[in-house]
Specification:
The complex is a heterodimer of chains A (600) and B (178). The radius of gyration of chain A is 22 Å and the shape is globular. In chain A, the strands form ten sheets. A six-stranded mixed beta sheet of chain A has the order 16-15-20-19-18-17, with no helix packed on it. Chain A has one domain: 8 Propeller (Methanol Dehydrogenase, Chain A). Chain A is mostly beta strands. The longest helix of chain A has 13 residues. Chain A is built from five helices and 40 strands. Chain B is globular and about 50 Å long. In chain B, α1 crosses α5, α2 packs across α7 and α4 crosses α7. In chain B, β4 and β5 form a beta hairpin. Helices cover 43% and strands 10% of the residues of chain B. Chain B has a single domain, classed as Orthogonal Bundle (Cytochrome Bc1 Complex, Chain D, domain 2). Classes of the chains: A mainly beta (600), B mainly alpha (178). At the A-B interface, β31 and α5 of A face α2, α3, β5 and α6 of B. Chain B: One of its GO terms (molecular function) is heme binding. Chain B: This is C-type cytochrome, methanol metabolism-related. Chain B: InterPro entries: C-typ_cyt_methanol_metab-rel, Cyt_c-like_dom, Cyt_c-like_dom_sf.
């Protein structure tokens, strides 16, 4: 049995055995029967060409099989499918299962790393892990404690392992890794612990470190070329990663790198965003705090930055810039452009030219966003590319020890990491969003290595004067900068979306539903309640001629913290507490993969 | 300075561990319970008749400064695991209940030293905050705030009215934070 599996796995890879790892992986990504990378493809579109399940028959969908991961707590990311093998990961302790789809999901191997549990409380918001990566017949597991392990995809044996960060100073990992050519590119978490964010490339064969690019620090650390690295078309100049900080504050400057990465093979650039500056008390870190809150375009071989764009200079609200960067080729004003679309935590969705870093569109993707009146789009202006901050919602201008109220969005953003999808058939982006506002009071904190470095008190609540729910699932036009339609949801939508050639879009909800909607109209076509809340990403694959839809259930993550007990409504009278539904009334902890298919 | 004192009291906890062993499904003490009710005030802080820090809420809803301070510090340091307003999360207990069911010294000890429950069904780890002034300098405040939440003497959300920060509290805070 095992042999036949090995043969079929070998055949899948064997198609391009002589090519480089990148081309082999690209071949798998191009085959819609596989789900070879967490993001669906290098472009992060989360779009599948599979069209057996359509908007006309998706209503007949049934559960085909299920798998318990054996772990509770938040399940983000999705399984991978390579040939007959499915690779399922879990939150801490970060188990990996290899299931044989040709044998009803028999477990071919299981890998469970030994990790010091002291990493658990250093993880900001639950012990989530957004999944393994595959390339070169190897599964790449990036553990919570930042150990990066290369596992033989056939046997689960360790090929090499390397330690990327130091949990004792608050460095942890929650993200997947990006395999590009002969390298594996990895990020780091820990913005709430005063780390200095970085991106690091390791040699895919040996695990040897090739380069590291910090989010802030001297040019030799940030891998910026003062002449040739540009910010909105202009050279960044010398020491741009230190000269907007006071003294040595950049050393604990945050700018973590835990989001989704994309890659353009033709331009040979990879894209990612950096997180919030530390602390959450803006008065304690004067300046723009570059390069936190920044979209980065870097060369994967050298790490050198080609262009960047700081979306939220001197953050005052914890609007991490780490969300997905979706790469599309679309027509703008009659001309085909290579675009990058990024729906940010700060409530603005940015459309950029991904070759040059030119800013094309920056518009609110939730009408309730109020901290800014918009971005200065005039290239000749002194404040070009900067958001105009509304004084009433500026936690900096209101000052320390003052409670700024009614700020939209809340710190968890109009969206967080939950990745969007893009359908080239409709030209629309499908974005899972939060519809939550906050009060924010910053105050002085002192830094202790490995301890939380926050410095603000937050209260969150559903966007006032809206539909009362805490989320929306929207269709977004990235050229017009407009919401096409919006589906109100009772809770934040914390699940990654999937769009398919069958004109169906899928997403999960915190109550535990898998939902299928019409890609053009947003009309609901199907729903099924899985055992626990969904914060995982919907994926699809084909096996033995049949299309399947897979989703991980397992409530947790930041959503499991903020929403578990429900949110209080500050505007309600005394005694109205609990007026908004608590997530705990709808779902409980779990850890399960549910796989759907049409009936035979 | 205060940190040292805290660490000392954490040291006692081991000895006192037998004290608090709450039964299952017990009824929680009410705000009039002598273990909860404020018996006297000293420099803006309130204490029970056993000299344990506690909250005070005036008839018009004004809370003592420590309760308000505890609200702020709780939501900076604790809420990312324990949820808003002491209500708990999907993986960490509701501290508004713990503040009532746990002995004061046990509570202090767990915060200072941390605690692990790691087994087949649980991966629950409380870190040690003993070296963190943002927590330790405000631990009594956090404790009394959670007690106020546990008895519902203070509703969810931000307390609307508070007493001013006393000079004594200000001096102690400056000394502790350095």
């Amino acid at each position: 049995m095992k042999n036949s599996l090995l043969m079929s796995a070998a055949m899948v890879v064997g198609l391009s055995a002589t090519a480089s790892a990148n081309e082999a992986l690209q071949g798998l990504i191009d085959d819609p029967k596989q789900w070879a990378i967490q993001t669906g493809d290098y472009e992060n579109t989360r779009y599948s060409e599979l069209d057996q399940i359509t908007k006309d028959n998706v209503g007949d969908l049934q559960v085909a099989w299920t798998f318990s991961t054996g772990v509770l707590r938040g399940h983000e990311g999705s399984p991978l499918v390579i040939g007959d093998m499915m690779y399922v990961h879990t939150p801490f302790p970060n188990i990996v299962y290899a299931l044989n789809l040709a044998e009803d999901g028999k477990i071919m191997w299981k890998y469970e790393p030994k990790q010091d549990p002291n990493v658990i409380p250093v993880m900001c918001c639950d012990t989530v892990y957004r999944g393994t990566a595959y390339a070169d017949d190897t599964i790449f597991l990036h553990q919570a404690d930042t150990t990066l392990v290369a596992l033989d995809a056939k046997t689960g044996e360790v090929k090499w392992s390397v330690v990327n960060g130091d949990p004792s100073i608050g460095e942890t990992n929650t993200a997947t890794v990006l395999p590009v050519k002969d390298k594996v590119i990895v990020g780091i978490s820990g913005g709430e612990f005063g780390i200095r964010g970085h991106v690091t490339a390791y040699d895919m064969k040996t695990g040897e470190r090739v380069w590291r690019a910090y989010s802030m620090g001297p040019d030799s650390d940030t891998l910026m070329d003062p002449e040739n690295t540009t910010h909105l078309g202009k050279p960044v100049g010398a020491e741009s990663g230190t000269n907007t900080w006071e003294g040595d504050q950049w050393k604990i400057g945050g700018g973590s790198t835990w989001g989704w990465y994309s890659y353009d093979a033709e331009l040979d650039l990879f894209y990612y965003g950096t997180g919030n500056p530390s602390t959450w008390n803006p008065a304690q870190r004067p300046g723009d705090n570059r390069w936190s809150m920044t979209i980065m375009a870097r060369n994967p071989d050298t790490g050198v930055a080609k262009w960047l764009y700081q979306m939220t200079p001197h953050d005052e609200w914890d609007y991490d810039g780490v969300n997905e960067m979706i790469l599309t080729d679309q027509e703008v004003d009659g001309k085909m452009r290579k675009l990058l679309t990024h729906p940010d935590r700060n409530g603005l969705a940015y459309t950029m030219d991904r070759e040059t870093g030119e800013l094309l569109v920056a518009e609110k993707f939730d009408p309730e966003v109020n901290w800014t009146t918009g971005v200065d789009m005039d290239p000749d202006s002194d404040t070009y590319g900067r958001p105009a901050v509304v004084a009433a919602y500026s936690t900096e201008q209101n000052g320390e020890d003052v409670n700024s109220t009614g700020i939209c969005p809340a710190a968890l953003g109009t969206k967080d990491q939950q990745p969007s999808a893009y359908s080239p058939k409709t030209g629309l982006f499908y974005i899972p969003t939060n519809h939550v506002c906050m009060d924010y009071e910053p105050f002085r904190v002192s830094y202790t290595a490995g301890q939380p470095y926050v410095g603000a008190t937050l209260a969150m609540y559903p966007a006032p004067g809206s539909h009362g729910g805490m989320g929306n699932f929207i269709a977004w036009d990235n050229i017009e900068g407009k919401i096409k339609w919006s589906i109100p949801e009772q809770f934040s939508v914390w699940s990654g979306a999937l769009a398919t050639a069958g004109d169906v879009v899928f997403y999960g909800t915190l109550e535990g539903y898998l939902k299928a909607i019409d890609a053009s109209t947003g009309d609901e076509l199907y729903r099924f309640k899985t055992p626990s809340g969904v914060i995982g990403n919907v994926m699809t694959y084909e096996h033995a001629g049949k299309q399947y839809i897979g989703i991980l259930s397992g409530i947790g993550g930041w959503a499991g913290i903020g929403l578990a007990a429900g949110l209080a409504d500050p505007n309600a009278g005394l005694g109205a507490v609990g007026g908004y539904a608590a997530l705990s009334d709808y779902t409980a902890l779990g850890g399960q993969l549910t796989v759907f298919a049409l009936p035979n | 300075m205060l940190t040292n004192r805290r660490l000392l009291s954490a040291g006692f906890v081991g000895l006192l561990a037998f004290v608090a062993a709450p039964g299952l499904a017990e009824t929680l003490p009410s705000r009039d319970d002598p273990a909860i009710a404020a018996a006297y005030e000293e420099g803006g802080r309130y204490f029970t008749e056993d000299d344990i820090p506690t909250f005070n809420v005036a008839e018009d809803g004004t809370v003592g400064w420590p309760t308000f301070s505890g609200f702020r510090r709780y939501h900076a340091e604790c809420h990312v695991c324990h949820g808003p307003d002491g209500e708990g999360s999907t993986y960490a207990p509701a501290l508004k209940t713990s503040a009532l069911t746990m002995d004061y010294y046990d509570f202090i000890g767990v915060v200072a030293e941390g605690r692990q429950k790691v087994n087949a069904s649980q991966n629950s780890v409380m870190p040690s905050f003993g070296t963190n002034p943002n927590v330790m300098c405000y631990l009594d405040d956090i404790y009394v705030y959670l007690k106020a939440r546990g008895t519902e003497a203070v509703a969810r959300g931000r307390p609307a009215k508070k007493e001013p920060k006393s000079d004594l509290i200000r001096e102690d805070e400056d000394a502790c934070m350095g």
